[in-house]
Amino acid sequence: MVETRDPSQIRVVVGMSGGVDSSVAAYLLKKQGYDVIGIFMKNWDDTDEFGVCTATEDYDDVIKVCNQIGIPYYAVNFEKQYWDKVFTYFLEEYKAGRTPNPDVMCNKEIKFKAFLDHAMKLGADYLATGHYARVEERDGEVAMLRGIDNNKDQTYFLNQLSQEQLKHVMFPIGDIAKPEVRKIAEEAGLATAKKKDSTGICFIGERNFKEFLSQYLPAQPGKMETFDGRVMGTHDGLMYYTIGQRHGLGIGGDGDPWFVVGKNLERNVLYVEQGFHHDALYSTSLKAVKMGFTSNKAKASKFSCTAKFRYRQEDTPVEVELLEDGTAHITFEQPVRAITPGQAVVLYDGEECLGGGTIDEVFKNSEKLTYVG
Amino acid sequence: METIYLDHAATSPMHPEVIEAMSKAFGQTFGNPSSIHTAGRQARKVLDDARSILARSIGAKDTEIIITSGGTEADNTAIFGVANVLQAKGKHIITTQIEHHAVLHACEKLEKEGYDVTYLPVDESGRISIESVKKALRDDTILVTIMYGNNEVGTVQPIAEIGEILKDHQAIFHTDAVQAYGLEKLNVEELHVDLLSVSSHKLNGPKGVGFLYQRTGTPLSATFLGGSQEKKRRAGTENVPATIGFAKAVEIAQSEMETKRAQYEQFRSLFLQVLDSEKIDYKVNGNVEHSLPHVLNISFKGMEVESFLVNLDMSGIYASSGSACTAGSIDPSHVLVAMFGNDREELRNSIRFSFGLGITEEMIKVAAEHTAKIVKRLAN
Fold this sequence. Notes:
The structure holds 2 protein chains of 2 kinds.
Chain A: E1 11-16, H1 20-31, E2 35-42, H2 54-69, E3 73-77, H3 79-95, H4 102-121, E4 126-128, E5 133-138, E6 141-146, H5 155-158, H6 163-166, E7 169-170, H7 178-188, H8 209-214, E8 222-225, E9 231-235, E10 258-264, E11 269-274, E12 282-293, E13 302-308, E14 316-322, E15 328-337, E16 344-349, E17 352-364, E18 367-368
Parallel strand pairs in A: 1-2, 1-4, 2-3, 4-7, 8-11
Antiparallel strand pairs in A: 5-6, 6-17, 8-9, 10-11, 12-15, 12-17, 13-14, 13-16, 14-15, 16-17, 17-18
Chain B: E1 4-5, H1 16-28, H2 38-57, E2 65-68, H3 71-86, E3 92-96, H4 101-112, E4 116-120, H5 130-136, E5 141-145, H6 159-166, E6 172-176, H7 188-191, E7 195-199, E8 210-214, H8 240-277, E9 282-285, E10 295-300, H9 305-314, E11 317-318, E12 323-324, E13 330-331, H10 334-340, H11 346-349, E14 350-354, H12 361-378
Parallel strand pairs in B: 1-11, 3-4, 3-5, 5-6, 6-7
Antiparallel strand pairs in B: 2-8, 7-8, 9-10, 10-14, 12-13
């Protein structure tokens, strides 16, 4: 389905956040002659007691940029869907002692589902976003490739997109490096050219994570222990900690720094050990659930590729064995540090993102590490 | 692409004669009406003439008209002005759940300051009952503020009957007639109201001007202090050109009221006829017997307003729904929530079309046909 139509005949809805990336995405599409519509998505109501919400400022920026570019703009509200599909999952995972990735879920359920449906209702041929990723025709399908800017590549968060979703997607800035994106925005005089990048989980923003989470989940303080039972202090609630974490433990004394190596939900104990490379932090394989692939083509039941277990991590060579019910066993060539249940495992073949799943169980030499959840 | 503006209840285009009158005023009447020289006197004269036109349009005296910056200021002045002056007599206020935010948010602020506010409910057609007003009235009620005709669904309230009830009560009676003014015969004597707010831009006048009618003797504190304009009830140099434009718009509206009403009634039935013939599943929100003629609020089965409005816009048809939230997305209308409760589909699938200057039967037909087409494509 290589596009043969003139761009002016192709309607593209751009998901605009009020940030520089989506601003430039819209700007480039407009320059290429597409029929572009900017839409702001409101997924979270963070209105404070003074009636101020960050969404208002972001939407104001969307308005300014769209007026500069000369495209119509609208807004759409997915607060309910976001709550049901993303936030509920987010809390459930924390309750289960895991470290969820709401951005992966948001892309799968909101941006490239509810929002894509909305765009289609507006007669759009494509949905574009300011993600650092690329799509390309390969063997009659759409392949998703890493963004050119390796430092910014966001395919990790997009790993759950299906072929049906990718067919309708454009990533206009995926083949541009971030500094160049800023430069384009500045040269075009876009209002968001110098706007700070948003950080952290979108609905928490700049706020204190602990404080935010404590509004929704009761925190149960408990003991911090080493594996051999030494009590090293108290923790504020297991949900506030993730495997491999160093900061915020407050354990002083001599020797190497202390790290979170595991959790015991039943006893409400946080396991800590000394040293970045402590043996307990290393594992050799994992079981993933909810595996999804960008391609519809049949997969071999066993194959080699590379994987990421966290955003902005170097790829690790792995062996993948696909099992029933969308699960997979993934074995690492070398032991990997701090594999964390709840996070995504994302598979790559060179530049191409193949798909991924959710890390469910972690193993060391075929023995399940019960302490990581 | 031909565009059809069906959002006259949001704001309306200026009448060419209004523009002409204002252009003339901008060029010739720059004086300050308070000045004692000829330029000032000239401005004073046209301002007084304009004020007389405004006063006559509702059967009031010239001295009873306080010219404001618009409907919101008029509503705020009425509510805060009465609450402030009469707090020794009581702190109870009665209003409805379907008021414009210029009234609701003012009342909510007073609640925070220790006033007691009763928000009367409405039935599914958007009407309050006379009984509920009687029941809510207390010895310490100082203000009753009830809108004349609703801006979202067009429902008209029994203002004269409520005025009758309040005749023998200390409470001041205010009505927000912003949406009704120009299309409903408003006579302050027949309505028994003490205060009445209107705005210019809803009836083809300029933005930024309106008035508050204040019955002689009605206690009211000023919100703006400064010069002695508007008999010290509203300080600030008068916006003479805007007031002239406003008065011109009122004159035209008064003379064409009956024709316009008949025309808009015709538009309503024509619009619905087209929907019927296209076999669209819809329902009109509002009150058939008691309605402003130019507001048509329709609930379309299986539709979502957000994509609906964008599609209408892309077809060149400008309509609206509820009130836009601060971040541009659409929050459920408090008016529809008051009528239907929190979980009815009407909150998500209702669109307001409103008619006004320049709209023709042909446009209504085209707009209804486009609407039907969009519904057929999107409804599920």
